[in-house]
Specification:
heterodimer, A: disordered N terminus, B: mainly alpha
């Protein structure tokens, strides 16, 4: 079961001619970057068509603010524009387009795999029904009918996950549509209890998840009732009243950044867990978006994996792996970053935050690659190596918190002033780094425990 | 006093009771379908029920613009059916 077709092309690539012509006429590097990105993304004409049409429709919806009827059908249909409903459709379209791309690419790769297997019957007979989310995502469905119109619509518009929900790939959803997998043959003697146990276990899991969501909601209500940092940051209260004597140095900015981050994490966790709970209650297991507490993280890569995790999974399956995966990582992150920025509709404030986080990622990648070198194998478990790693992690956390302070609290124009304020408060910076160092040690211990329990 | 300066949270929180009711209704529908549908057509019956609920849900959310969403999903499906599985050459 392959997740992506071979990278080899079966014919001359039309983009090569365009690239050659662009190089000769001195077209801007930006255009060249886009053309190279397209070439990297395309495995063949079908993938171009699928990506191109969907991205074009997405941009058209964004630019025209929702493709008004007057524009699409002419002035006679303008009366329909007043029947707008409660929510603008092109806001939810961001998520729908990801599900649509998932359907088209899953179908594309399934057909390629079936053709390569040379005999659909042989491939289907060998396939056991997948049980885990990873298996469900990768396994092709048994027949072409499983990729029909009804499953396609049901997946793209699935009500619990339509508004904000975790992104579930088409194959994962379609396998769950077929119902629970048959119990393994070994449980034949206790078949009655085996059939009852999954239902009660599923109900208990839903209840536990509902309690977890209730805890998130309670925390969020507490934060919004007693702490007002988000409002203070949004209205730039600190910068405005600093001239009138309000204390707004590095410690205050750091505190504001911390609590704004807490609020953001709780908000997204509550929203995503509400929709995931709705899907679980209706019988569909979607990926968990908030995998880890935001404070239990010391690296950009961990942030990518632990915050909006289903989106990260989607990017890996439909962009990162088809473009070459880890082998071309330094190249592939740039078109992916471009797509993520366009998709999120980042304004300049958040874009500067994203660029800073990306800059922090480069030393992190280099440090991790260096630390994974075989010559450190002997000392890796030792206290000295761990202390060095914790110090590096503390610097990394400082970089990430700096990016948060710029992105959420002071803005790009306040960055220079913030650097001056940090330089003027060395005790605060030292205390913060010491706290990050201790936190990093705790995180290493937690991860070692998780790895141990997973292996056991 | 409550900090509702974040638009996303303010709107979601206001819609939470109605959303909760809608999701509860959907969960009841989803659980009921396998009971009255024949086992071999369970997947199709489920999909049809989900799409029917989604149509009502989208009509309420987006009004006439629900047509756009259905049209785009159907168009994507038509495109995928036409080109999926082909290589060039």
């Amino acid at each position: 079961m392959r997740t992506a077709p071979d990278a080899g092309l079966v014919g001359p690539c039309p983009l090569d001619a365009a690239l050659a012509r662009s190089g000769q006429t001195g077209v801007s590097p930006c255009v060249l970057c886009i053309l190279n990105s397209l070439k990297l993304c395309a495995g063949c004409r079908s993938a171009w068509a699928i990506w191109g049409c969907n991205v074009a429709a997405f941009l058209a919806a964004r630019v025209t603010e929702g493709l008004p009827f007057a524009l699409v059908l002419g002035p006679r249909a303008a009366w329909l524009d007043s029947h707008r409903g409660a929510l603008r459709w092109h806001i939810c379209y961001n998520l729908t387009v990801l599900r649509m791309l998932s359907y088209a690419l899953d179908l594309h790769w399934a057909r390629l795999a079936r053709a390569a297997a040379r005999g659909p019957a042989a491939a289907v007979a060998a396939a056991a029904a997948p049980r885990t989310p990873r298996e469900r995502q990768r396994c092709e469905l048994p027949s072409e009918a499983d990729y029909g119109l009804l499953p396609c619509l049901a997946h793209a518009l699935y009500p619990p996950l339509y508004l904000a929900g975790p992104i579930i790939s088409f194959q994962d959803f379609a396998w769950q549509l077929r119902g629970p997998p048959p119990p393994p043959a070994a449980a034949a003697d206790g078949s009655a209890s085996a059939a009852a146990a999954p239902t009660s276990a599923a109900a208990a899991a839903v209840l536990r998840y509902a309690l977890r969501l209730a805890a998130d909601l309670a925390c969020l209500e507490a934060v919004t009732h007693f702490l007002y940092f988000n409002s203070l940051a949004v209205h730039r209260v600190g910068a405005r009243y600093a001239a009138h004597g309000l204390a707004h140095g590095a410690p205050q900015v750091g505190l504001a950044a911390w609590w704004v981050l807490t609020f953001m994490w709780l908000k997204f966790a509550t929203i995503w867990r509400t929709t995931r709970l709705a899907a679980l209650a209706a019988g569909v297991e979607a990926p968990e978006n908030m995998v880890r507490c935001f404070a239990d993280n010391y690296e950009v890569e961990g942030f990518w994996r632990g915050w909006h995790a289903s989106y990260n999974r989607w990017l890996v399956r439909y962009m990162y792996v088809p473009m070459g995966g880890g082998a071309r990582r330094a190249l592939t992150i740039w078109p992916i970053f471009l797509f993520v920025a366009l998709w999120h509709d980042l304004d300049w404030r958040l874009l500067s935050w994203a660029w800073l986080a990306c800059l922090a990622f480069l030393p992190e990648m280099a440090a991790k690659r260096a630390a994974a070198a075989p010559r450190f194998d002997a000392v890796r478990g030792g206290a000295g190596f761990r202390a060095l790693a914790a110090a590096a992690a503390a610097l990394n956390i400082a970089g990430l918190m700096g990016a948060n302070m710029v992105g959420f609290v002071v803005g790009a124009d306040g960055a220079a002033a913030l650097v001056r304020q940090l330089a003027a408060a060395p005790a605060y910076v030292a205390a913060a780094l010491a706290a990050f160092f201790c936190a990093a040690q705790l995180m290493f211990a937690l991860r070692a425990r998780e790895a141990g329990s997973k292996a056991a | 006093m409550q900090d509702l300066s974040d638009t996303q949270w303010r709107e979601f929180r206001a819609a939470l009771p109605a959303l909760g009711a809608a999701f509860a209704a959907f969960a009841a529908l989803a659980r009921a379908v396998p009971r009255w549908a024949p086992p071999r057509r369970a997947a199709t019956a489920r999909a049809a029920a989900y799409v029917a609920f989604a149509a009502a849900f989208l009509l309420h959310l987006h009004g006439a613009f629900a047509l756009h969403v259905f049209a785009l999903v159907a168009a994507n499906r038509a495109l995928a059916r036409a080109v999926a599985g082909r290589r060039y050459g």
